[in-house]
User: Which sequence fits this backbone?
């Protein structure tokens, strides 16, 4: 696969960026005409810190209390920086006394997120933010929400690096990038994919971890 990769910077901070690569990609729930690369935000310290500051603004400005950040698809480092921003003093909360926990998921054989007995206390009765790299259909975020609610937690918010959805089950999605930032971005149901209908070869399988060439 020889595709041109485009760099897209945040309108709020030019130091924060994603990559876009157009083609024919398949995710677990959709066919896509564009792969969104978020590796720099997840794995580059400087970019990750700046991205976390942008994400935290939503919760600080709306005075939304957060106890735990549940990190999906290798966003634990980003989640730690987000937790740091949410727990430090700011103009609206000059004397914070709360700790913000950072938690990664464990999955059972059916793909459901589970929490061991020693970690349930970080979910039960807590205000939980679900952090995810990319949201397309929202199904992964929905499953995470179901798990948090099952274990007695409360959904304080959903935060993504890129999201094609404005809200999921009535919860506003706080994202740095949206489809407005990626010209022509489209996601299709498998049975309604125009690329498949014209016989266009699939370039790669994609998920929140990255892509695998076919």
Assistant:
């Amino acid at each position: 696969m020889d595709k041109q990769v485009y760099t897209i910077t945040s309108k709020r901070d030019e130091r924060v960026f994603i990559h876009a690569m157009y083609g024919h990609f398949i995710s677990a729930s959709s066919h896509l005409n564009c792969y969104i690369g978020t590796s720099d935000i997840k794995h580059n310290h400087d970019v990750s810190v700046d991205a976390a500051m942008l994400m935290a603004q939503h919760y600080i400005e709306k005075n939304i209390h957060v106890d735990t950040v549940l990190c999906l698809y290798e966003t634990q480092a980003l989640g730690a920086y987000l937790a740091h921003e949410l727990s430090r003093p700011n103009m609206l909360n000059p004397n914070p006394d709360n700790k913000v926990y950072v938690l990664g998921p464990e999955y059972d054989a059916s793909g459901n997120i589970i929490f061991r007995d020693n970690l349930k206390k970080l979910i039960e009765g807590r205000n939980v933010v679900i952090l995810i790299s990319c949201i397309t259909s929202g199904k992964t975020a929905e499953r995470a929400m179901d798990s948090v609610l099952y274990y007695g937690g409360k959904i304080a918010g959903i935060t993504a690096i890129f999201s094609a959805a404005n809200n999921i089950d009535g919860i506003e999605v706080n994202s740095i990038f949206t489809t407005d930032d990626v010209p022509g971005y489209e996601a299709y149901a498998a049975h309604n994919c125009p690329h498949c209908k014209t016989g266009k070869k699939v370039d790669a399988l994609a998920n929140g971890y990255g892509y695998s060439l076919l």
Observations:
- The mean pLDDT is 93.
